[in-house]
Amino acid sequence: MDVDGWSASDIPDQSGRTAVVTGANSGIGYVTARELARRGARVVLACRDATRGKTAEERIRAEAPGADVLFAPLDLADLASVRAFAAEFPDRRLDLLINNAGVMALPERKTVDGFEMQFGTNHLGHFALTGLLLPRLRAAGRGARVVSVSSWLHFLGTVDPRDPNMEHRYRRWAAYGRSKSANLLFVHELSRRLAAEGSPVLAAAAHPGYAATNLQTKGALMEERAWLERLFELLNRTVARSAEAGAVPTLYAATAPEVGQGDFFGPGVPKKSPRAPWTRDSRAAAGLWETSERLTGVTYAWSPPR
């Protein structure tokens, strides 16, 4: 898993720390959860599908003997599920929240709550989850982190505040790019607010580059477009990085001591990743934050500045 001199073997000891990884049943999320568990963390596998989640739990125990892992149900496309996960979370403190799960380039679909599926899952579900778990992250104190997994495809565009759910005209790849820009805008504003209250909690972001996971083929499967599914399978075999390599930027953002507030990493860590200028637009980030609170009903509580 070496990437420009940094690998999973460089992860500091995580003993005594608790991590939540969304979408941990496959791909980058699975590798992230496994490697954190190997370094001693207690890892909660937050997954929508119970069968796949429990299978991942068993696989990690087999690949990392002695690993402390636990499956817990979480459907980011259903805010009731997000609230239930947070309410039933067994630990009083939480050290790492890895907002990894996502969907990509789906045909037009809605979440349980009526949001465009990619915006609702990739951004709003994680926005709500982070807000509900933030008190536990604060309780962990120094070393607590939130890491959101974006994509280099965030360059496709940013959120339209007049139509965040793309009700006027839906385009699957534009919707995906906007949801990934939303991830970075979220981290930008979360970092600003954490710094303003003097919190030790750190927010950062990462992206895997083009990594071979099942994310690429889901949209084609839903529409039964076999030719597109075969194309992505071919690209995954011949062009894409492995899921192990794709997880390295996330693991670096989650554990490396050099990471700063609001940093964004891609392939080639510890070098920071380029990002679109609109993902640093503080006015847009604040506007998206207000919209997200209104849509999800999750309002973050902030302490007075220290």
UniProtKB/TrEMBL annotation:
<dbReference type="InterPro" id="IPR057326">
    <property type="entry name" value="KR_dom"/>
</dbReference>
<keyword id="KW-0560">Oxidoreductase</keyword>
<protein>
    <submittedName>
        <fullName>Oxidoreductase</fullName>
    </submittedName>
</protein>
<dbReference type="Pfam" id="PF00106">
    <property type="entry name" value="adh_short"/>
</dbReference>
<dbReference type="InterPro" id="IPR002347">
    <property type="entry name" value="SDR_fam"/>
</dbReference>
<dbReference type="InterPro" id="IPR036291">
    <property type="entry name" value="NAD(P)-bd_dom_sf"/>
</dbReference>
<comment type="similarity">
    <text>Belongs to the short-chain dehydrogenases/reductases (SDR) family.</text>
</comment>
<feature type="domain" description="Ketoreductase">
    <location>
        <begin position="17"/>
        <end position="155"/>
    </location>
</feature>
